[in-house]
């Protein structure tokens, strides 16, 4: 029996078309499946409502978020009391917000007071304690945790001036909320005296250095140079050299101006009156030059009163007076 060539070709053609249609159908099916998956992905996960967990304990809040298929991102924050330790202070998103399951919820959790008990401040320096408490209070939300009652009580003692002698509440007292500390602070020894050194004949730089190390209370005056006197030099002092004077005695120092000034330079006498201190406190005078450079002019422990310092600076500089790293006064240097 012979083969019909035309029948064979027709049979092959039909099967080839069937194969093509099958492949095309599979391609279309795969495409439909891919599009379905794509749109499901775009649609996202099941939506849920954010619960209100503010004011609740952390453990309870986490269990409720888990039921809603929400996940926490926790931040700790100190507060002014230990009573709210572990409670939720804030949340984001807000309660009632509709979000997708799996969303991260930011929880701000109280870690309680930074201090649980009053520390022992006796024998410590008052100003150091002030700075420490400022740092603590700046890190908490709400009213300051620990404050110092003003005015401070001072008494004479053999301890260094500024040393805390007594405190209330006692060390170890529980801190359950804002607390006021009462201190008794040393004024230093009664009738404390210092020896007046030789200032006359010193140039300004050396005179300032000697003031810083001698502990003498001082005040500068400026007058024109007289015959045979040196320029920019202490030419008079009010107290005799090597005599003992009470620590609060003001030694007057008279200085002459410089012989010549550079172009744009100014010579002057900085003067600022500050309250009297119970004992000498760290005072610093800086200059901020027109270039932006900050330059130390003078630093000393000062009792208070009229603080005077001669200076020679470029016009347009700023003089900045600091006490215990706190700015008291600032002024511009101007020519006449």
Task: Write up this protein.
The protein has 336 residues and is of the alpha+beta class. 22% of the residues lie in helices and 36% in strands. The protein is built from four helices and 20 strands. Strands 6, 7, 8 and 9 form a four-stranded mixed sheet that branches. Strands 17-16-19-20 form a four-stranded antiparallel sheet. The N and C termini lie far apart (132 Å). The mean pLDDT is 86.
State the helical fraction. Answer: 10-25%
Form type: elongated
What portion of residues belong to β-strands?
35-45%
Helix/strand order: HEHEEEEHEEEEEHEEEEEEEEEE
Uncertain segments of ≥5 residues (pLDDT<50)? Answer: none
Give a brief description.
The chain is α+β, with helices and mostly antiparallel strands and 336 residues long. It has helices at residues 5-43, 58-67, 126-138, 204-214, and strands spanning 47-49, 71-79, 88-92, 98-100, 104-113, 146-148, 153-155, 164-168, 179-186, 193-195, 217-222, 234-237, 244-246, 250-255, 265-274, 281-288, 294-302, 305-314, 318-323, 326-332.
